[in-house]
Design a protein that fits this description.
- Helices cover about 50% and strands about 15% of the residues.
- By secondary structure, the chain is an alpha+beta fold.
- The strands form three sheets. The protein has a three-stranded mixed sheet. Strands 6-8-7 form a three-stranded antiparallel sheet. A two-stranded antiparallel sheet has the order 1-2.
- The C terminus is likely disordered.
């Protein structure tokens, strides 16, 4: 149902997109799903544009987000950011060919000019110059997914690849945010750990001080220590100074959230 919720990471925006989605798109998305027999009547009602069915789906989406995503979002986001950074480094070092060769064996295999994906549905997808979006995911451990815009065929397909596999301790992803924060506090100290975590979203020295309830001088001092350790980078943004985590800083945050597991 990604087409109904859009490409947002905000649950409120996702629900708004779902409720405002055109009836034709809803019908296409529902028809594409493999619905269990017990739920087919409800699915047909949803596909037909019933407002109450759509509100029920929106409520279920919020409930799922509250239980399965919200408590663990920081760790998931850091893991996904690390995966994307790895894709970028591979492509920078070896080009697109190297990236495609090393994407996700054995689920994905590059046999020029064809990218083969192990998938439950057998289909040939011709890009025709549209490109391909590669998106890591933490919710699929054994399967790659190919997602297409069912309404706008000119949009590039999305190849969703698992970041948790058979050889990975996937259970460590589900540490609560509180547990991850305690681990980072032990490593760097509470205030400096908070500065590093805040910089993951990018913020100025003034924003750091305001978020953490510390003085500008203290925020600047901690940012300086982290910068010298190559955990954050600093650049000017107009009159302000913007701090963001480096790849090393993001990897540290992700490693701590996983308990320094494999």
């Amino acid at each position: 149902m990604a087409g109904l919720t859009g490409g947002t990471t905000c649950i409120d925006e996702a629900v708004d997109n779902l409720l405002a989605a055109p009836r034709a798109l809803t019908r296409l998305e529902v028809e594409y799903l493999d619905v269990r027999p017990a739920h087919r009547m409800w699915a047909q009602t949803l596909a037909g544009g019933d407002r109450e069915a759509r509100l029920q789906l929106a409520g279920a989406l919020r409930a799922c987000h509250r239980v399965a995503i919200a408590p663990y979002w920081q760790q998931m986001r850091l893991d996904l950011d690390t995966a994307r950074a790895g894709y970028a480094r591979t492509m920078a070092a070896g080009g697109v060919e190297r990236l495609l060769e090393t994407l996700c064996d054995p689920l994905v295999r590059w046999r020029p000019p064809v990218l083969e994906v192990r998938h439950p549905r057998d289909a040939d997808i011709h890009l025709r110059g549209r490109g391909l979006v590669i998106a890591p995911t933490v919710f699929s451990s054994q399967q790659a997914e190919v997602l297409q815009n069912l309404v706008d065929q000119e949009q590039p397909p999305v190849l969703a690849l698992p970041t948790v596999g058979e050889g990975t301790d996937g259970s460590a992803h589900w540490l609560t945010e509180e547990a991850a924060e305690r681990s980072l506090d032990d490593l760097l100290g509470r205030t400096r750990a908070a500065v590093l975590a805040a910089a993951a979203d990018g913020c100025s020295t003034t924003e750091l001080a305001r978020r953490l309830g510390i003085s500008l001088a203290t925020a600047s001092e901690h940012a300086g220590v982290l910068r010298r350790a190559a955990l954050i980078s600093t650049r000017r943004d107009g009159k302000a100074v913007l701090h963001t985590t480096t790849h090393l800083g993001a990897a540290l945050l992700a490693s701590v959230s996983r308990g320094f597991g494999p």
